[in-house]
Write a structure and sequence with these properties.
Elements (H helix, E strand, L loop, with lengths): L1 H7 L1 H19 L3 H31 L2 H6 L1 H27 L6 H28 L8 H5 L12 H24 L3
The site of protoporphyrin IX containing FE has 25 residues, from helix 1, helix 2, helix 3, helix 5 and helix 6.
Length: about 180
């Protein structure tokens, strides 16, 4: 059964890599290819989310939660998988609701930042999966350079969570105000 998870994992990894690339081209480039990327991004994001849900379900179907939560490496793999899912879900909502406007100006910049963050997170998810199967790659050197040893549970100090909540409020409040002022 483990082969099922290994096989399914290719879907979110491939669709999310493609989605992040399409965001970069769709926001930063001009011309026919950029137009195509803007039009086709939504179905690619939907396929990525469906692939991720199947991969996650396969994980829970195969391994017990007790075993998964016992090792720092699998805890980190789970954490990064859910963070990747959260970022690409956010992208899906932004592109779905914003349509063509999602790629312009500051909205486009938000897509690029989230697209790069998502790419970083799913690359970490896959890398940690590789560690779990006994096939580590040189990619782990990057988080190590940033101060995180992947064999230890990922930890964020409480004050960082506080700053993240404040930042979220600082971004959400002007957004709500503007949406109320906008003509219907
Ligand atoms: C978007 C979600 C996920 C992605 C992209 C992903 C990706 C991967 C990849 C690429 C591998 C290595 C496979 C190989 O080397 O052939 C792997 C292994 C693994 N994953 Fe995931 N994974 C995800 C979610 C999960 C979840 C939710 C769980 C647990 C509930 C899980 C548990 C595991 C375990 C235990 C292994 C090691 C398998 C083994 O030793 O044979 N993964 N994963």
């Amino acid at each position: 059964m483990t082969g099922m998870h290994h096989m399914l994992a290719h879907f979110p990894v491939a669709f999310w890599a493609l989605a992040s690339l399409m965001i970069l081209v769709g926001v930063l480039a001009r011309g026919r290819l950029a137009d195509l990327c803007r039009v086709a991004l939504l179905p690619v994001l939907i396929l990525g989310i469906l692939g991720a849900l199947a991969t996650i379900l396969s994980g829970y179907g195969i391994w017990t939660l007790e075993a998964l939560l016992h090792s720092p490496l699998s805890r980190n793999h789970l954490l990064m998988a859910f963070w990747s899912l959260a970022v690409y879900l956010m992208l899906l909502v932004l592109v779905w609701v914003g349509g063509r406007d999602a790629f312009a100006g500051r909205r486009g910049l938000a897509l690029v930042v989230l697209g790069l963050l998502g790419a970083w997170l799913f690359a970490l998810t896959g890398t940690l999966g590789g560690h779990l199967t006994g096939a580590p790659t040189v990619f782990s050197a990057l988080p190590r350079l940033l101060g995180w040893e992947v064999y230890t549970t990922f930890y964020v100090p409480t004050w960082v969570l506080g700053v993240m909540v404040l930042l979220a409020i600082a971004v959400a409040v002007p957004g709500f105000r503007r949406s109320k002022r906008a003509p219907r």
